[in-house]
TrEMBL record:
Signal peptide residue numbers: none
Organism: Bellilinea caldifistulae
Record-given protein name: Prenyltransferase
MF term (GO), any: prenyltransferase activity
Transmembrane feature ranges: 20-39, 45-68, 95-116, 122-141, 153-170, 182-203, 224-244, 280-301
Highest taxon above the source species: Bacteria
Keyword terms: Membrane, Transferase, Transmembrane, Transmembrane helix
Coiled coil region boundaries: none
GO biological process, one term: vitamin K biosynthetic process
Length: 303
């Protein structure tokens, strides 16, 4: 019994995607950090309520996806050598539905608190509305964007653009162009991360009838786009001082460039027929995005 409880809890935690929640928190903090960089004050009550809205949106999205992923199939699933169901999940799909309804309700209540405080201006309402549409239809029919071939793009825009933008406009009420200097390199690296990780499961996803960005592009174009996105990300970082960004916010992010070059080299080797080291590729892709995100967060809040 205790072993099964641990298994259920572990599955629920994995479904909740704690690393994605951490990325969402750091990206939200980066959006507010632009205010700190500009020397403006932060309303901490609004900050934490806004962070709660972002986290609850993320959780409701993954729980709704899990609920529809577990729709019963008409044909029996294949069993493993141990006699267990290959796709068996220890958590009932109704638990995920309950979790999704709970997080959506809590998110609505938190949004009402922000509205009652008068901080939801037209810009923040726009960011929140688009974020809700992306989060809801990411896993919910009829759109079910996660398997449309555009799910990675939707996730990237949501996390790296809408989340930090929402954090900023919630405090100030309007967006400024400088946000793009921080968001677009992260957007490019996040897309490169998803392309790198989806390459490993390319043929299994095709066999399962699922669509992702790599499959929609084809593996050759997907690999070329992966390399282009990494180069574009660091090009945008490098030229950001020409757009008025302080050098103190530029050079720390350029420290990640060797990791990005190594990631491109790995993908180039795979394209030339070398045996893939999938674990190393996953770690390198995660490091490129994670290090750039962390250094950006650190520079904004301390520089």
């Amino acid at each position: 019994m205790q072993k099964n409880i641990r298994k259920v809890l572990g599955e629920f935690i994995r479904t909740s995607q704690p690393l994605a929640l951490l990325a969402g928190a750091l990206l939200y903090a980066c959006g507010v950090g632009v205010l700190v960089y500009l020397g403006e004050s932060v309303d901490w009550t609004v900050y934490w309520f806004g962070q709660a809205v972002v986290t609850l949106l993320q959780l409701s999205s993954v729980y709704l996806k899990a609920y529809y992923d577990l729709v019963p199939e008409s044909s029996p699933r294949s069993a493993t050598d141990n006699g267990r169901m290959e796709d068996w999940k220890p958590i009932s799909r109704n638990v995920y539905l309950l979790a999704a309804v709970t997080t959506l309700t809590m998110g609505a209540m938190t949004t009402f608190v922000l509205y009652s405080r008068g901080v939801l201006q037209p810009a923040s309402l726009l960011f929140l509305g688009i974020s809700w549409l992306f989060a809801f239809f990411y896993g919910v029919p009829p759109l079910r964007l996660v398997y449309s071939g555009y799910g990675e793009l939707i996730s990237a825009i949501f996390l790296t653009t809408l989340v930090p933008g929402f954090g900023y406009v919630l405090q100030r009420g309007e967006l400024i162009p400088i946000m793009g200097l921080f968001n677009f390199p992260l957007l490019a690296l996040f897309l490169a991360l998803t392309l790198a990780t989806s390459l490993e499961t390319y043929f299994s996803e095709i066999k399962a009838g699922r669509q992702n960005m790599m499959i929609r592009l084809g593996w050759q174009r997907g690999m070329n786009l992966h390399n282009f996105l990494i180069g574009l990300a660091f090009l945008l970082v490098g030229i950001s001082p020409l757009a008025g960004l302080a050098w103190s916010l530029t050079w720390p992010r350029l420290l990640v460039l060797p990791v990005g070059i190594f990631q491109i080299w790995q993908m180039w080797q795979i394209g030339n027929g070398a045996k893939p080291n999938w674990r190393l590729l996953r770690l390198t892709a995660a490091a490129s995005f994670g290090l750039l995100l962390y250094l950006q967060f650190f520079s904004l809040w301390t520089g």
